[in-house]
């Protein structure tokens, strides 16, 4: 069973299907399919205060994807515009994965959880995060690589396993802008969300990490 979620969809959305008996590599997972009988902007305004700072937002011609971590639960929210021009209705999918079993004791040592799973040629674009120590330290970093999207994806998959990370899920997405994918992984008490986006002559990499 999933623990009580901090994030709740607005009451006025129309829930179509709920899958709440899922697991991913032993971790509880829930997926909610819904429709939004209002403008997308109204929906985003209402949920903005419920999504923590540091959420990763990816825009695409056929939808918007928002991902974040809160209270040891990882969320991915995808909004897709209705193909009907007569209605502003949008479709949405909210997936959530608990990063820990309630009764499972996970190792807290992170000394063996190397973050060296990025391609060797990456260039740091930006970095921001908490400076203080303690739990729930969050950090967001952006990189670029001259390697192709497929090459970067293969390197990340191979090196995550090499350095002791457990892959939770992958959310691939294809649009007119090109391929993109998001990886979920954890090691010890570290959780990472890795967003790869194909761009002209390079691959952009966004990494959101948190120590819990």
Task: Name the descriptors.
212 residues; mainly beta; six-stranded antiparallel β-sheet; 2 helices; 11% helix; 51% strand; disordered N terminus
Task: Summarize the model shown.
By secondary structure, the chain is mainly beta. It is 11% helix and 51% strand. It has helices at 40-48, 149-162, and strands at 14-24, 27-36, 56-60, 63-70, 73-81, 90-98, 123-129, 137-145, 166-175, 178-187, 190-199, 202-211.
The strands making up the biggest β-sheet line up spatially as: 1-2-6-5-4-3
In this structure, how is the largest beta sheet organized?
6 strands, antiparallel
Q: Structural class, judged by helices and strands?
A: mainly beta
Quaternary organization? single chain
Q: Order of SSEs, N→C?
A: EEHEEEEEEHEEEE
User: In DSSP terms, counting alpha (H) and pi (I) runs of 4 or more, how many helices?
Assistant: 2
Mean of residue pLDDT?
76
Helical residue percent band: 10-25%
* Percent strand: over 45%
Count the beta strands: 12
Unreliable sequence segments: 1-5, 101-111, 131-135
Q: How far apart are the first and last residues' alpha carbons, in Å?
A: 21 Å
**Gross geometry:** globular
Report the C-alpha radius of gyration, rounded.
Answer: 18 Å
